């Protein structure tokens, strides 16, 4: 069985801190906004995208 991911989304109460952490391990982020959605960080990887969105009360947490 081959499993592949093309999108990973994390939600963080401190997006800048999370982006700093992932930048230190090699990801390169740009700020993005889709339509009226929240501003977030996105890093394009070969074959996928890694995004960090703000944590809000109306969205599910990614802690688990």
In short:
By secondary structure, the protein is α+β, with helices and mostly antiparallel strands. It has one helix at 15-24, and strands spanning 7-12, 30-32, 40-45, 48-54.
Structural class, by secondary structure, is: alpha+beta
The strand order across the widest sheet is 1-4-3-2
Please tell me how large the radius of gyration is: 12 Å
User: What's the total helix number?
Assistant: 1
Distance between the termini: 25 Å
Q: Which range best describes the helical content: under 10%, 10-25%, 25-40%, 40-55%, 55-70% or over 70%?
A: 10-25%
| DSSP E strands, number | 4
Low-confidence stretches: none
H and E order: EHEEE
Silhouette: globular
Would you tell me the overall average pLDDT?
A: 90
Beta-strand share of residues: 25-35%
Major sheet description: 4 strands, mixed
């Amino acid at each position: 069985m081959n499993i592949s991911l093309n999108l990973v989304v994390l939600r963080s109460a401190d997006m800048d801190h999370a982006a700093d952490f992932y930048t230190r391990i090699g990801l390169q982020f740009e700020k993005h906004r889709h339509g009226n959605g929240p501003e977030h960080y996105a890093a394009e990887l070969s074959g996928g995208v890694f995004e960090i969105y703000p944590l809000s009360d109306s969205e599910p947490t990614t802690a688990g």
